[in-house]
């Protein structure tokens, strides 16, 4: 099947008999090209067919309110979202988040093993806060603490400024590549990445 034009959807190929899609993974700002899927159109299809929509906004959703509005995808339309504050927000490596719209304890039902020697029910705090029984890894670093500390240090404006500065630098680089001899713009994208090449002989 030939590639689809940008920002268009193409029909699924013929699926094997008995197969039924259940999950769609869309991207919002890919790491290499800063590419965006047509998220609203994909969300409409998922809603129509009852499909789980996961959106990877690792780069494309750096800071709600900091990036241009055209890049923001309403998180409520996705069933799950992954987000990496260690990218454009420059939180210390690594800092990743997996966000769910579901509030029924889905992760614990899927991954929990109820190991009583690890997750005692008589703790002095709300045991629903234990994340170990909600992920395949059991133990994880407290990534959220890094984001919280940075947020407290620089504030909402400071985080937004980091993103705005990155977009400003991208626009500056784009103009420089366009105006200088010996450089050619290979692809213009909407994120903080631009693809170009230079002639080393010029």
Automatic annotation (TrEMBL):
Pfam families: Pyridoxal_deC. SUPFAM superfamilies: PLP-dependent transferases. The modification N6-(pyridoxal phosphate)lysine is found at residue 87. Gene3D superfamilies: 3.90.1150.170, Type I PLP-dependent aspartate aminotransferase-like (Major domain). Signal peptide: none annotated. Coiled coil: none annotated. Its cofactor is pyridoxal 5'-phosphate. Keywords: Decarboxylase, Lyase, Pyridoxal phosphate. GO terms for biological process: carboxylic acid metabolic process; taurine biosynthetic process. Belongs to the group II decarboxylase family. Homodimer. This is Glutamate decarboxylase. The lineage of its organism: Eukaryota, Metazoa, Chordata, Craniata, Vertebrata.
């Amino acid at each position: 099947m030939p590639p689809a034009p940008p920002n268009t959807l193409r029909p699924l190929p013929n699926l094997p008999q008995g197969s039924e899609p259940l999950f769609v993974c869309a991207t919002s700002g890919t790491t290499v090209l800063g590419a965006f899927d047509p998220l609203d159109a994909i969300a409409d299809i998922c809603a129509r067919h009852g499909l789980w929509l996961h959106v990877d906004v690792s780069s494309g959703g750096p800071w709600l309110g900091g990036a241009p509005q055209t890049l923001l995808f309403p998180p409520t339309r996705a069933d799950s979202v992954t987000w990496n504050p260690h990218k454009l927000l420059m939180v210390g490596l690594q800092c990743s988040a997996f966000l769910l719209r579901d509030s029924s304890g889905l992760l614990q039902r899927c991954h929990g093993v109820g190991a009583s020697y690890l997750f005692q029910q008589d703790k002095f705090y709300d045991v629903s806060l234990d994340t170990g029984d909600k992920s395949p890894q059991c133990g994880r670093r407290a990534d959220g603490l890094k984001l919280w500390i940075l947020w407290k240090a620089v504030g909402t404006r400071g985080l937004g400024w980091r993103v705005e500065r990155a977009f400003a630098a991208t626009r500056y680089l784009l103009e420089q590549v366009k105006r200088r001899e010996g450089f050619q713009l290979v692809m213009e994208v909407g994120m903080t990445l631009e693809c170009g090449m230079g002639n080393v002989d010029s």
